[in-house]
# Entry
Amino acid sequence: MTGRAVSMAREHAPWRAGTPWWVTGIEGIVLVAIGLYLLLAPASAGGLFLQLIALALLIQSILHIAAELRGSPGEADPYAMLQAGIGATVSLLLVLRDWLVPSLDVSSARTILGLGLVAYAVIGVVGALIGRDESESWLGPVVNAVLLVVLAFMLLTSGETNAADRLAILGWIAVVGGALLLLLAWRSHSRPRKA
# Structure
């Protein structure tokens, strides 16, 4: 099941040539909608945005754990398991914070998520550099880690005075990224079909 989900996600990546135009279009619409929500309703978007990041991290961590456990016994990558365990712990705490820690405010949740993302990124890079085969590239995990650290930096440096500004930056990034995906979908749809 996990393998199918991962292969389907890779197969429908918006930059792949065989991806249907409508899949890229839906991704663009969703990204634009998220960006507009961040721009137009920053007061209510702050807490929800943290929940969405935590939910995405939880899903990614669960998929990593399942993929490692599906392999042969004793062959699970300890760095991948540690990274996924950190991601699952931090994200589960934040996704279920209303039930687990109802007194946890948004500022504390932002700090927990930011530090969790930094730990997740560092363990991912260490695991990629130490435990990789010669045929595996280290570039993907390093780029992923840099993006996670930038997101963590934005979360950790956000406060009551600049949280709206940070959400606005992320909102504009989402709107522009979604618009680019919509452009890619339009180009893919309007491209002449080969017979």
Q: What stands out?
A: The chain is about 80% helix and 0% strand. Helices lie at 2-11, 21-40, 42-70, 78-95, 97-100, 106-131, 139-156, 163-190. Residues 21-190 form one domain.
